[in-house]
TrEMBL record:
It comes from Cercocebus atys. The record marks 58 as: Crucial for catalytic activity. GO terms for molecular function: tubulin N-acetyltransferase activity. Its main location: cytoplasm. Acetyl-CoA binds at residues 124-137, 160-169. InterPro entries: Acyl_CoA_acyltransferase, Atat, GNAT_ATAT. Residues 1-190 form the N-acetyltransferase domain. Residues 229-263, 282-310 are annotated as: Disordered. Its EC number is 2.3.1.108. Pfam families: Acetyltransf_16. Component of the BBSome complex. Interacts with AP2 alpha-adaptins, including AP2A2, but not with AP1 gamma-adaptin (AP1G1/AP1G2); this interaction is required for efficient alpha-tubulin acetylation, hence clathrin-coated pits are sites of microtubule acetylation. The modification N6-acetyllysine is found at residues 56, 146. This is Alpha-tubulin N-acetyltransferase 1. The keyword Transferase applies.
Amino acid sequence: MEFPFDVDALFPERITVLDQHLRPPARRPGTTTPARVDLQQQIMTIIDELGKASAKAQNLSAPITSASRMQSNRHVVYILKDSSGRPAGKGAIIGFIKVGYKKLFVLDDREAHNEVEPLCILDFYIHESVQRHGHGRELFQYMLQKERVEPHQLAIDRPSQKLLKFLNKHYNLETTVPQVNNFVIFEGFFAHQHPPARKLPPKRAEGDIKPYSSSDREFLKVAVEPPWPLNRAPRRATPPAHPPPRSSSLGNSPERGPLRPFVPEQELLRSLRLCPPHPTARLLLAADPGGSPAQRRRTSSLPRSEESRY
């Protein structure tokens, strides 16, 4: 593909890499360019013409590669030039390949959705007059080395039949994983993909337990043994077939525990009388003007006639 300006001077190397800024590459030492020449405008013209030629070759209604699209997206274009054929000493363009990273939802072999961001082949074109000369493989291999990716790690946007045959011939990419979008991925695409980290729900606080939760149900299942003697289950009186002879000894019964020694009632009352009164009781008796409680009882029990005497 020829242009009315010097392509060989614009692109010093055989393969030129351009990003969204479309800045001209560094020029060779000693190369002069008229001050009025806009090098960026020349680059934009080349990209626009390459996009039109690629759309025509793929039977597309509109180009998918243009200078304006390059400036509005973070894509990278690799341009291959022909230095041998120099019509009028200006050089020519052989073809280009456009790549970029995109966030995609793709299906794996188990038809599970995966969110990935692979390097995608967005456009690929080699001029019809120089096809089947190894230029496409040269450009594609240079891109793989520059981007540091393997062919099976790529996702191709709406590849043509020529591109699919090209990938099968040079990189043995044949088996595809069916997708629901326009991108094509090949077997082995997920071999080097890192699995997404699972997001676990936040741990609930200890006190934040809803009623009738599983924790409560598990707690209620645990039977708590009551204290003695409530833990003794009542036994049903089952008459034995041959009742044993009665024994007059109370100590032979296995159901009774040890008995405390019997304390006579008189001895218990005598011990209560000998107990010293509490200090608080002494203070109350001293502060009471009516005397002791026994004295008040004796006074209140007298007849009214005797009370009047005092």
